[in-house]
Amino acid sequence: KFPTMTKTHPRILALFDVDDTLTAARKVVTPEVTARIAKLKNQITVGVVGGSDLVKQKEQLGEDVIHTFDYSFSENGLVGYHNGECINKTSLKEYVGNDKLNKFINFTLLYIANLDIPIKRGTFIEFRQGMLNVSPIGRNCSQDERDDFEQYDHIHQVRAKMVNVLRAQFADYDFTYSIGGQVSSLSSHLASHAAAVDLIRRVPHGMGQDVLPQVPERRRL
């Protein structure tokens, strides 16, 4: 665990992404990064926010992630912890309802089935607490296949086109879409890192809104 002591500047917040920031994509944090975060945490308030669920966040950052960071947010801020205690858990199923979710999932699976892309694997839709992770190639692909698809998608804009179709088809769903990682698109009604910042502002005795600048949201399509 990171050491606990009085911070030098507790009202200053550093909020880190996981993949390609604290770790390489889907890899485990290195001891060097862990040590630097521990040193930083002694001085300021430190938080982590990522698109993956808490299980995957623990795999990358350690089982004690909700304690070792002052703030821990998974699913782009839809599930949040402060000093190990849950402060927010948004349920997409309760918000949208099963009927609407089924329509969205069925349409998306059919759309992916008709995609003409070099390879497909498995787990095309991953249901999380507060969001859906949609992957045209499938999340079961290998790292080499992820890398190849990322290059293919950069040229052919597979995910961007899919997001445009889903947004038009389900315009009444009040979903937010963003492209994340190498192979996924994220669909939710509140999927943005700004949600995490808003939660921090609302934590009793936390940093006040006057000392937290506006944090830009992830790129939306």
Total beta-strand segments: 9
Number of helices: 8
- One letter per element, helices H and strands E, the order comes to EHEHHEEEHHEEHHEEH
Low-confidence stretches: 189-194, 204-221
Quick one: CATH class of the largest domain? Alpha Beta
Helical residue percent band: 25-40%
Overall morphology: globular
| Residue-averaged pLDDT | 82
- The main sheet orders its strands as 1-2-3-4-5
Radius of gyration over C-alpha positions, nearest whole angstrom: 18 Å
Sheet with the most strands, sense and barrel status: 5 strands, mixed
- Give the CATH topology of the largest domain: Hypothetical Protein, Haloacid Dehalogenase-like Hydrolase, Chain: A, domain 2
CATH architecture of the largest domain: 2-Layer Sandwich
Class from secondary-structure proportions: alpha+beta
Strand percent estimate: 15-25%
Count of the domains: 2
| N/C terminus separation | 38 Å
CATH H-level name of the largest domain... which superfamily?
A: Eukaryotic phosphomannomutase, cap domain
Keywords: Cytoplasm, Isomerase, Magnesium, Metal-binding
GO molecular function, one term: metal ion binding
Active site: 17 (nucleophile), 19 (nucleophile)
EC number: 5.4.2.8
Summarize the structure in words.
By secondary structure, the protein is α+β, with helices and mostly antiparallel strands. The protein folds into two domains: 13-89, 3-Layer(aba) Sandwich (Rossmann fold), CATH 3.40.50; 93-187, Eukaryotic phosphomannomutase, cap domain (Hypothetical Protein, Haloacid Dehalogenase-like Hydrolase, Chain: A, domain 2), CATH 3.30.1240. The protein is 36% helix and 19% strand. It has helices at residues 31-41, 54-61, 65-68, 92-96, 98-113, 143-156, 158-169, 193-202, and strands at residues 9-16, 44-49, 71-74, 79-82, 85-89, 125-127, 132-134, 176-180, 184-188. A five-stranded mixed β-sheet has the order 1-2-3-4-5, with helices on both faces. A four-stranded antiparallel β-sheet has the order 6-7-9-8, covered by helices on one side. β6 (125-127) and β7 form a beta hairpin. The protein is globular, with a radius of gyration of 18 Å. The termini are far apart. InterPro entries: HAD-like_sf, HAD-SF_hydro_IIB, HAD_sf, PMM, PMM_cap. It catalyses: alpha-D-mannose 1-phosphate = D-mannose 6-phosphate. Keywords: Cytoplasm, Isomerase, Magnesium, Metal-binding. The active site is at 17 (nucleophile), 19 (nucleophile). Alpha-D-mannose 1-phosphate binds at residues 26, 128, 139, 146, 184.
